[in-house]
Amino acid sequence: MRSHFLLILFLLIIIQSNGIQACQCPVTVLSIQECNKYEVIFRGKVLTVKTCDDKPGEAVFEVLELYKGNAEQKFKVLFSCSEECFYAFKPGEEWIIYSRYKQVNTALMDYCSRSRRLFTNSKEDYYNSTNGNEYEDELKFLRDKLGLHRLIQNNKNQDYSRNLIPDTKQSVLILLASIVGIVLFYFLFSRIVK
């Protein structure tokens, strides 16, 4: 009886300790080497959040300061909702995001990145103990060591699908130019062949 109790207690301890470690990440120190692990680093404010529906969630950020990489004013960050540990973004929150690109203006969050949220009450900021520094200290480091980068201007004329259907005027002009070209070719060809 006693051995069964000890076995069950041992299994519960193992299960409990595995559950605790599931969301733990290795402790990192803020440094240039740590920043080099990421392709894009910025401070931003969450504008909108789309929850997961059998695909990654999306958080659209307004980029306030860009420290590394290229980003437009609005930058999309994808995150997983299917894992045990994931970031829960809410509109209006300010974050420092450390990430890698998924596409041109989209990043994919990794739970174990250095990304952190700004807390209004600094006593609630649990990132202070895990990251080893306060939010403002991290911003100062990023500004001093990486500098502020210029955001990419959103070019509204930039259309990635160049297969546009011409409007009526363009269609008529193309048709007339084609007819004139065919007639001119026929006229010149008939002169040369004779």
Strand portion: 15-25%
Number of helices: 5
Main β-sheet description: 5 strands, mixed, barrel
Radius of gyration computed on alpha carbons: 28 Å
CATH topology of one domain, which one?
A: OB fold (Dihydrolipoamide Acetyltransferase, E2P)
Q: Overall mean pLDDT score?
A: 83
Structural class comes to alpha+beta
Which spans of ≥5 residues are poorly predicted at pLDDT below 50?
A: none
Which architecture name of one domain does CATH use?
Beta Barrel
Strand order of the largest sheet: 1-2-3-5-4
| End-to-end C-alpha gap | 114 Å
Order of helices and strands: HHEEEEEEHHH
Q: Tell me, what is the CATH class of one domain?
A: Mainly Beta
Provide a quick synopsis of the model:
This protein is an alpha+beta fold and about 190 residues long. The protein has a domain at about 25-145: OB fold (Dihydrolipoamide Acetyltransferase, E2P), CATH 2.40.50.120.
Q: Topology, pairings included?
A:
Elements: H1 2-21, H2 32-35, E1 40-50, E2 57-68, E3 74-79, E4 94-103, E5 106-108, E6 116-117, H3 127-131, H4 135-146, H5 168-193
Parallel strand pairs: 3-5
Antiparallel strand pairs: 1-2, 1-4, 2-3, 4-5, 4-6
Task: Please give a handful of descriptors for the protein shown.
194 residues, alpha+beta, OB fold (Dihydrolipoamide Acetyltransferase, E2P), five-stranded mixed beta barrel, 5 helices, 6 strands
